[in-house]
Amino acid sequence: MQRTSQNRDLTKRQYVRFAFYKLDPLWRRLPADEQIEHKQELVDTISQFNRRMLLRPYSTLGTRADAELLLWQIAETPLYFQELASAIVRTRMGGYLNLAYSYLSQTKRSVYEIRDYRHASEEQLVIDPSEAKYLFVYPFIKSRDWYLMSQPARQGIMDEHIQVGRKYPSIKLNTTYCFGIDDYEFIVAFESDEPSDFLDLVQELRETESSRYTVQDTPLFTCINMRLVEAIDALGGPPIATPVAEDEQREVWMDVCPLEEFPSGSTRIVYLEGKQIGLFNIEGKLYAINNRCTHARGPLSEGAVDTDACTVVCPWHYAKFDIQTGHVVDGIASRPVETYAVEVRDGVIYVGIVPQSRAVNGVQKGQN
């Protein structure tokens, strides 16, 4: 049996917020037991929003003097950003956290063609953060002269800009747009494991024609990817994080919903550890895979599901994946999607990221 997909939607955008916080030094003078309580309360409060948005924490302690913590937030509505901000200020530690910078933006198709990659504009609608160690963020404004040039003239200048970027495959670019919703025009966020690659890229871009039309591209933030509890610990006070070796795989679980609320044929999006996961109930068996197609990040949970073959077809460019293994079955994609563990405990569905040796995808209905 095959479940038909919804209408193919290539226009849905994401809202993006970069919230940089600076801790009042007075907090570091509080008694140690209060600091522990404050940090745990803040971690628990922020973690609750993992159910509704992609949320990536970074530390800027040691790389900036005016900011110490970044919460990179990606959601389907900006209302979640307001709710998270309100929840943070209501915590005890939130009373000591000053919002140093806040940038609101949205994904959007670029008006410039990226030659030799015809699906780039659709990929730009989706932010799918990698596990890179560093994130480099800055706001960006172009001059009025730039916008007064013809589209072909701007495209020619951008061709040079894009060619320089292609020389640095270790760097992933996320461009979002602020026109009318914040003070800037763009927010750019580059992911990389090597800061020197980003330094070389920026220096080389300074020599391109497009740099003539840059009005502002500061402040620039160098952010270090951390678990939320580690980023909060970095702010000071006794640590509350459980130490994890760099090469050790952590096990993380999140409850999703009661099994009775997720009948056969259902799909749902789950957010866990900064990943968007598609949860499927196929004839009583539960499966969890990364919700983003590895080709152009299309939403697999909105695709057509063949329950007999246990496959899903991406609604954007029709790559087909095996839901149980994540492997590519057919179509344009070349890489498998990640799979995640699923368990049912006391009638509640849990999705987890676990060491590969323990991963179980396709839990029988009612199994505990």
Written overview of the protein:
With 368 residues, the protein is of the alpha+beta class. The chain has 2 domains: 15-233, Apc35880, domain 1 (Alpha-Beta Plaits, 2-Layer Sandwich); 247-364, Rieske Iron-sulfur Protein, CATH 2.102.10. 19% of the residues lie in helices and 32% in strands. It has 7 helices and 21 strands. The strands form 3 sheets. Strands 2, 3, 4, 5, 6, 7, 8, 9 and 10 form a 9-stranded antiparallel sheet that branches. Strands 11, 12, 13, 14, 19, 20 and 21 form a 7-stranded antiparallel sheet that branches. The longest helix has 16 residues, at 32-47. The chain is globular, with a radius of gyration of 22 Å. It starts with a strand and ends with a strand. 34% of the residues are buried. The model is unreliable at 2-10 and 364-368 (pLDDT under 50).
Would you kindly provide a brief summary of this structure?
This protein is an alpha+beta fold.
CATH class of the largest domain: Alpha Beta
User: Which CATH architecture of the largest domain?
Assistant: 2-Layer Sandwich
Overall pLDDT confidence: 89
- The name of the CATH topology of the largest domain is Alpha-Beta Plaits
Approximately how much beta-strand content do the residues carry? 25-35%
> H/E series, N to C?
EEHEEHEHEHHEEHEEHEEEEEEEEEEE
Structural class by secondary-structure content:
alpha+beta
Layout of strands and helices, then pairs:
Elements (H helix, E strand, L loop, with lengths): L1 E2 L11 E9 L8 H16 L6 E6 L9 E7 L3 H11 L7 E10 L13 H4 L10 E9 L1 H5 L2 H16 L5 E6 L8 E7 L2 H11 L8 E3 L4 E5 L2 H6 L18 E7 L8 E6 L2 E8 L2 E6 L13 E3 L4 E3 L6 E3 L5 E3 L8 E7 L2 E6 L9 E2 L4
Antiparallel strand pairs: 1-15, 2-4, 2-5, 3-4, 3-10, 6-8, 6-9, 6-10, 7-8, 11-20, 12-13, 13-14, 14-19, 14-21, 15-16, 16-17, 17-18, 19-20
